[in-house]
Amino acid sequence: MREFTEQELVRREKALQLREMGMDPFGHRFDRTAWAKDIKDKYADIDHDAFAEMDDEAVVAGRIMFIRKMGKASFFTIKDKTDSIQIYISINDVGEEVYSLFKTADIGDIVGVRGKIMKTKTGEVTIKCLEYTHLVKALKPLPEKFHGLTDIEERYRRRYVDLIMNDESRKVAFMRPKIIRCIQNYMDGRGFTEVETPILTTLLTGASARPFVTHHNTQDLDMYLRIALELPLKRLLVGGMEAVYEIGRVFRNEGMDTKHNPEFTLMEAYLAYSDLEGMMDLTEKMFQTIAKDVFNKMDYKFGGYDINLEGPWKRISMTEAIKEQTGIDFKDKDMTLEKALDLASEHHIEVQEHEKSFGHIVNLFFEKYVEETLIQPTFLYGHPIEISPLTKKNPEDPRFVDRFELFIAGKEFANAYTELNDPVDQLERFEAQLAERDLGNDEANDIDMDFVEALEYGMPPAGGIGYGIDRLCMLFLEQESIRDVLLFPTMKERN
What we know:
The protein is an alpha+beta fold. The chain folds into two domains: 6-142, CATH 2.40.50.140; 165-313 and 376-484, 2-Layer Sandwich (BirA Bifunctional Protein, domain 2), CATH 3.30.930.10. It is built from 15 helices and 18 strands. The strands form four sheets. The protein has an eight-stranded mixed sheet with strand order 6-10-11-18-17-16-15-14, sandwiched between helices. Strands 1-2-3-5-4 form a five-stranded mixed β-barrel. It has a three-stranded antiparallel sheet with strand order 7-9-8, with no helix packed on it. α13 (423-438) packs antiparallel against α14. The longest helix is centred in the middle third of the chain and has 22 residues, at 167-188. The radius of gyration is 29 Å and the shape is elongated. The mean pLDDT is 94.
């Protein structure tokens, strides 16, 4: 049987007393007319004495966060979604019965107040209570004010308490939707159409990742939660929509850390008749638009670095970046697989069986020597074909593809392609992925024959890109953990 603390027992007794008085402890509709922040901003510069000539009123509602109970007059503070505001309540204004009701209130209760706007002698905008309405009795006490919810795991598990106590968490919660709305406005303004594609799928395509598996009872069919958005969106290019994007959840059955959550928000966009350069321009301007329109600044602190988003951003090929750090030129036409394997051995880079190809070795060198050095916004392009199964080959060197990743503070923020639209080449890439699976790569793509057939109808030349929206929010909100920009991150079960 559940046990209650002494405070919880007292609060439950107060709830019973409210019922005995004919009041619902858990309230009903209450029509407010104003928000705390708007009131404080509007009256901030008005002198204390001027309020004597004013008769402005407001109706507010919120959670009690502070109470200073006195004899016949008291102060308390309520918090709504915008801010906190002080309330002055006096037995002379509300009467003995209502004042007695107020004195039963606890921190955490939700109340409504109609009152006159005033300012204390110390200059604090305050509402003088004329009507007091009990709305909700909080049966559990909030954490102690000055220490709050200090267990970081509990902050994520009990986000509702975190949002009550932690103003920074509330700020992040309200700013993230503004970032996403800015992205939507930016894309819509450039002729893109926002669409929705299936979450349930029978094939693993569009990314290299392990899936979550579910089951469709009616069809008696195992299905996956999608790991990417790519192939359905590119089908829409075939259908003539030409400029499409989706912002949606994807699911990857992988580890959890400060930069990864098993379910996360991805945005993918595809633009017919564009290419890699077009995606770079789209991306740089989008980040700068968010910086300007939502935050009005170009400088951010992220990952322990001072990041500046002003352009132009650096553009460098993967092989050039590796050469800068190691002196090795993988672009050399004489570079063979045997030479690449020897270089990996000399540099103590472990190569798994399914990675014994030129492209995988190039990528392993990049991950060891380059990735963490890309601090300021950098477009890294020219990836090996083996790690880019959906990308058009570079016409000058077919060992590489027209792909870029955006790196900031040593972390990937976007992945873009000049899209592969040759159905014969695409099928060969899918088949090569299956061969990798046979060698132990459990993240290799399935063959999507319907997509190959779609390409046979003709997909226009196109540029495509994917953005990790959570990581993008981490940058702009200057948060170091993905859990701080997700309202409900995936958590381990309690022991």
